[in-house]
Write a structure and sequence with these properties.
Layout lengths: L7 E10 L5 E11 L5 E5 L7 H7 L7 E3 L4 E5 L1 E7 L14 H14 L4 H17 L2 E7 L4 H14 L2 E5 L16 H18 L12 E5 L9 H12 L5 E6 L3 H10 L6 H7 L7 E5 L5 H10 L2 E4 L1 H6 L7 H7 L2 E4 L11 H18 L21 H15 L17 E5 L22 H18 L5 E6 L2 E4 L6
Helix pairs in contact: 3-4, 4-5, 5-6, 12-13
Bound molecules: guanine (GUN) and fe (iii) ion.
Length: about 475
């Protein structure tokens, strides 16, 4: 994307995820972004009367400072590790089905419409705009099986300045006649064409350690929809291209698992199918993982693959509850996914809310209704997810799953400025989130300001929506949000 940027400095409240157990709150933070959109430096606790001195010490006397208003704070952008762009048109329908019937009756017919490039352009333009405005700065998109429509999806993501992985589905069997790839050779050829096309949009700079904003991703839809020769060709493609990410579905639904086991009798398990074909590795994103066996969990851990937790979809398609606490205890990378339209909301806020509910239901089912600290044997398994854990999964966790942990997910010098300016008040200063404490913030002590900000974050995560997301930045560029001029 061509854009002329200049460095800028933000002054105000910054909330930064640190780990599954903590985040930092800096009510009076100075955060400088350089001309290529990376974070130059961060200074906490800058009193207004020392602002000019701090700026001078950084050699930035002339720099423009963007001062946040009371009620605003900055957080890292959200990372959606799993969604389907061509399913947005049927979001909120089909919840009466389970996975395989839902695919046949609801999803495949909708995706088939993306053979029409005009429909694809119109739909994807509104989809990507909506995803960005919901605060998703990095998104892992599945397209349909169509090469041309998926190129259009990548064009739009690139033009809008979102960070993303874009893949076209590989699917050459067990799909309806009107929506299936004619052969594994066609599927592989179109995949290779798409990879080259997306890489030509934003070529890697030789002198940059950072990866391009929009990247291709291998997308074998799921084992059921791919023949052995297709999976094996994709595995070969992957092995010749170690940086290429892979995304697929795993162990979402019991009927899906039985059918997969029937189709691949020689594989040790569902996860074993992907492993057998060289598709289980450190940059593989496995969506759902609701019903994994112990052996599969160990295999996934040993390969360092990541899991996309899609709780809304797992509830909506009656798939079950993924035991993410178990995965976190094992040290497996976990991020959140909206899985539209198995999930019925494009916003990661909704995934956060349902991840919280899912963890509580899981803990109730196992008779362990305590908070994270109530068992000695496990830290996260069968426990509630705390606010720091939920915030982590939506940001740092997602970045790790995408292999972007050094670039996005939190704020640190050298990382990309992918961020949201959140506002919990309206123009007149009144709370936009019901029940929010309306104390005059400016006159509070730093410690009291921190407490308020913690409360604001919690309220935003559970009661907020895109009306609270004022500005969305990707790589330092203002790309969306409520105040973005379109
Ligand atoms: N498994 C294979 N395809 C899909 C899909 O589109 N959505 C979900 N949730 N699971 C799948
Ligand atoms: Fe999915």
């Amino acid at each position: 994307m061509e854009s002329i940027k200049k460095s800028c400095i933000f002054y105000g409240a910054v909330i930064n995820p640190k780990s599954l157990q903590s985040f930092s709150v800096s009510p009076q933070c100075l955060l400088a972004v350089d001309a290529i959109g990376n974070i130059d430096w961060i200074v906490d606790d800058v009193e207004p009367h020392t602002l000019q001195d701090v700026l001078a010490s950084k050699g930035c006397i002339e720099s423009e400072v963007i001062a946040l208003r009371e009620g605003e704070f900055i957080i890292p952008g959200f990372i959606d590790t799993h969604t389907h762009a061509p399913q947005v048109p049927n979001m909120g329908t089909g919840g009466q089905y389970e996975l395989l019937d839902w695919l046949e009756n609801v999803t495949f017919p909708t995706e088939a419409k993306f053979s029409d490039v005009n429909f694809a352009r119109e739909t994807y333009t509104s989809v990507v705009r909506r995803v960005i405005d919901s605060g998703t700065t990095t998104c892992c998109y599945y397209g349909s099986l169509h090469l041309e429509a998926t190129k259009i999806l990548a064009d739009i993501v690139y033009a809008f300045g979102q960070r993303a992985f874009v893949g076209k589905c590989n699917m050459n069997r067990h799909c309806p006649g009107h929506y299936i790839e004619p052969s594994f050779e066609d599927s592989v050829a179109d995949t290779q064409t798409l990879i080259s096309y997306i890489r030509s949009l934003s070529p890697q700079q030789d002198n940059s350690s950072q990866e391009p904003l929009v990247q291709p991703i291998l997308t074998p839809r799921f084992a059921i929809s791919c023949t052995d020769d297709l999976l094996s060709s994709l595995g070969n493609l992957a092995s010749s291209d170690p940086k290429l990410r892979i995304q697929t579905h795993i162990s979402e639904n019991k009927s899906e698992i039985s059918f997969t086991r029937e189709l691949f009798p020689s594989a040790s398990s569902y996860a074993g199918v992907y492993d057998m074909f060289g598709l289980l590795r450190q940059n593989t994103i496995l969506a759902h993982a609701v019903h994994l066996t112990e052996d599969e969990i160990d295999l996934i851990k040993s390969k360092d693959a990541g899991i996309s937790h899609c709780p809304t979809s797992n509830f909506n398609l009656s798939s079950g509850i993924a035991p993410v606490g178990v995965y976190l205890d094992k040290g497996i990378k976990v991020g959140l996914g909206t899985d539209v339209s198995g999930g019925f909301n494009v916003s990661i806020l909704n995934a956060i809310q349902n991840a919280s509910v899912a963890a509580k239901v899981c803990s109730l089912q196992t008779g362990n209704s305590g908070s994270e600290s109530s068992s000695m044997s496990a830290i996260y398994a069968n426990k509630q997810l705390s606010i720091p854990s939920l915030f982590y999964l939506a940001t740092i966790g997602g970045a790790a799953v995408c292999g972007l942990e050094n670039q996005v997910g939190s704020f640190a010098t050298g990382k990309s400025f992918d961020a949201l300016i959140v506002n919990v008040r309206d123009e007149a200063g009144n709370p936009t989130i019901w029940g929010l404490d309306d104390t005059n913030f400016t006159n509070l002590s730093i410690e009291d300001k921190k407490k308020h900000l913690e409360g604001w974050l919690e309220r935003f995560l559970f009661c907020g929506d895109d009306r609270n997301i004022e500005r969305v930045y990707v790589q330092g560029t203002f790309v969306g949000g409520r105040t973005f001029r379109r």
